[in-house]
Amino acid sequence: MRITKFGHACVRIEHEGRVLVLDPGAFTDAAADALDGAHAVLLTHEHPDHYLVDHLRRTDAPIWTIGAVAARIREEAPDVAERVTVVAPGERLEAAGLPVRVVGERHAVIHPELPRFDNSGYVVTCGDERVYHPGDALTEPGEPVDVLCAPVSAPWLKASEAVDFARAVAAPRTLAIHDRVYSELGLGVIDQHMGAFLPDLGIAYSRIPEGADLPAL
Fold it and tell me: 217 lies in a domain?
């Protein structure tokens, strides 16, 4: 299994010749590389840092996403909508030939007076390993996973919440995503917190550059 990080919340998973891409959004500068040869795309929610129609037009791969995103795609890009399949929390499917389970249904609270958005994460099974991408939520996957794609900077997220989420999921590897909101200095502070609390639990934390692969343990 190969996991490549592409800008903010976009992750590319390759396994046995199959390619699945999650959340190629507006902060994904190298979307052409992320989507090159993709067999499937998964979208967690409708915010532009996770979903951008122009990126979806770079591929003819089928798209799986929640109803709210599908509705926006039908309005903004009818040419793309014909490739969209709507999924629901708890559903199991195969995308790019890989088993996927849909997790959760609400975006984290940004502010109590703002409306809540729908959001569903995905557990992707690659042989004997599972990868969890939660989108913009701290919903636990409900099963052991080997790699957690963990948000580390957001208007809805505190450093302590990021640490506690990684602790609760307890994946052997935690990959930092959602990392374009803070400066490099701010991300360094998050890295320090993750490095202070996670290793004692056997959790290897990584924040990697755009286009880089998650190192194997």
Answer: no
For residues 49 and 52, give the distance between their C-alpha atoms in angstroms, rounded to a whole number. Answer: 7
Q: Identify the domain containing residue 145 by its residue range.
A: 2-206
In a domain, 212, yes or no: no
- Is position 34 within any domain? yes
- Sequential DSSP letters for 5-34: EETTTEEEEEETTEEEEE---TT-TTHHHH
The pLDDT value recorded for residue 216 is 80
Q: How many domains does the chain have?
A: 1
The two structure tokens encoding residue 182 = 């803070």
Q: Does residue 87 fall inside a structural domain?
A: yes
List the strands of the sheet with 92-95, edge to edge. 92-95, 98-103, 121-126, 129-133, 147-151, 173-177, 204-206
pTM over 0.90: yes
Average pLDDT per block of 10 residues along the chain, 217 residues long? 95 97 90 89 96 94 97 96 97 97 95 93 98 98 98 96 98 97 95 97 96 88
The predicted structure's pLDDT at residue 35: 94
Paired tokens of 38: 């993709």
Looking up residue 185, the CATH number of its domain turns out to be 3.60.15.10
User: Using CA atoms, how far apart are residues 36 and 134, in angstroms rounded to an integer?
Assistant: 23
Which residue intervals of 118-216 are DSSP H helices? 159-169, 184-197
Secondary structure of residue 194 in the 3-state scheme: helix
